[in-house]
Amino acid sequence: MKPYSRHSAKNNKVSDSARTVLLCGMRDGIPIGLGYLAVAFSLGIAARNAGLTAFQGFFASLFTNASAGEYAVFSLIAANASYLEVALISLITNARYMLMSCALSQRLSPDTTPVQRLMTGFCITDEIFGISIARPGFLNPCYPIGALLVASPCWALGTALGIIAGNLLPARIVSALSVALFGMFLAVIVPPARKNKVVAGLVVLSFLASYICSVLPLFSSWSDGTRTIVLTAVLSAGAAILFPVNQEEGEIRNDPS
CA 21 to CA 84: how far, in whole Å? Predict the structure, then answer.
């Protein structure tokens, strides 16, 4: 029989706590995964139109936890964009995750190892960030990891199923299903646009600028990926300079009370 020691008892307690938090994250990740399964089905249609197989689409979504980023990448692939354009648009589209990572880093215990911090950063999506930042006290890295263990396979499976359906269904139905992804983006931009006139104006301006650049002789010769990158950088930078967010106002919005 192994002798009892306080050190071994402490390790067992930590292990049990990590397991409990992991299971809690997996439980909270179930509704997120179900939502991902439905949304990723439409994303699979876009991947199919870009020429990806179900196998390729599955692993693309498994290792890329970003809906808007993946859609942008699939659109660029369909437009025969260069690797540089794909890399740049992915960086710009997913830049918000850097801010989420900075926010969550302030909630991690000082004892959190660099590997755990990297794993927490990889797990961040809009929804997982939302449930993680809402937890009281220090954030245990096992929580977002548990949520991702459930949500990520659903996201990947939904993409693969969308590609399979796109290969089996008639062209008219596939075209109709492709519209569902645009509905998802409308669901993302409409609520903040209704609350903030600046955001609403910026959305309208982005649509107008995109159309103008597509018909102007100078910009119409650019690829879709290049125009998207330039417009995203210019419009977002202009909005940040002309309409900066008041720091005190931001703190009030983030106050859970």
Answer: 40
pLDDT tens, residue by residue, 206-223: 889 888 888 888 777 776
CB 177 within 8 A of CB 42: yes
Show the tokens assigned to 114.
Answer: 């660099």
Most distant CA pair in the chain, distance: 82
Find the Cα–Cα–Cα–Cα dihedral 115, 116, 119, 123, rounded to 10°.
-170
Those residues whose C-beta lies under 8 Å from the C-beta of residue 69, and which sit 6 or more positions away, are 90, 93, 94
For 2-56, write each residue's pLDDT tens digit. 444 444 444 444 455 888 999 999 999 998 888 888 778 878 888 888 889 999 9
Q: Give this prediction's pTM.
A: 0.64
Q: Give the up-direction half-sphere exposure of residue 30: CA atoms within 13 A in the CB hemisphere.
A: 6
